[in-house]
Amino acid sequence: MGDAFCLKWNNHQTTLVSVFDKLFECESLVDCTLAAEGRQLKAHKVVLSACSPYLEELIRNHDDRHPIIIFNNIRYEELKAMLEYMYRGEVNVSQEQLDSFLKVAESLKIKGLTDQGGGHKNTEKEEQRTGKKRRRRTSSESTQSEEKETLKPEPKSEPIDEANSEPIEDLTIEEEDDEYGPPGPGTSQGSFSSQDFNNWQVSGDITNDEVFLAAQQEINSQGNPAPGM
Hints:
Layout: H1 12-26, E1 32-36, E2 39-43, H2 45-51, H3 53-60, E3 68-70, H4 76-88, H5 95-108, H6 124-148, H7 194-199, H8 208-223
Parallel strand pairs: 1-3
Antiparallel strand pairs: 1-2
Helix pairs in contact: 2-3, 4-5
């Protein structure tokens, strides 16, 4: 027995969707007609059966080659939007028409829009609402966490430079004693102390001028010794 090779069509689903979309737009190879509000839409049995178990059972129970299905409680615009969803996998619906569109999908058991059709309700509107709620919750939680956090200033401690931390010496000024000490008794040459001056003060009628002159003479006599000495 020879080897078996698996040949895969990578874009199979995309190609089928695009082909059915073209057939729907051109109304080519159609074998079914849907009617609402006196207006008709051409479709394909295989697509209706694949997207709705309710329509599949309805078509199977009719042996007509080209059956005509009339919907009394469905508007034409809603029916057209439903066919676009089945052929293309998506459709744009306004917010005002969203509730009625979902009710029609529920009654026809359209897959992907109702649980009875084997799928789950999945609309971009619901996803956007959920995303907004999550973003609001995240933003509120982040705001609360920021409010709870308080910034406490920490005291700054700067290191003390050891080179500049030398102890300051107390500078005191000491008065130096007289290098020469207290003057000795008597008088020196060229000087006359108050003690010597007081020795010349005598009691009597002698005035101070006379005493000063006598003291001056005594000093001069000490500075000029008598000849022969």
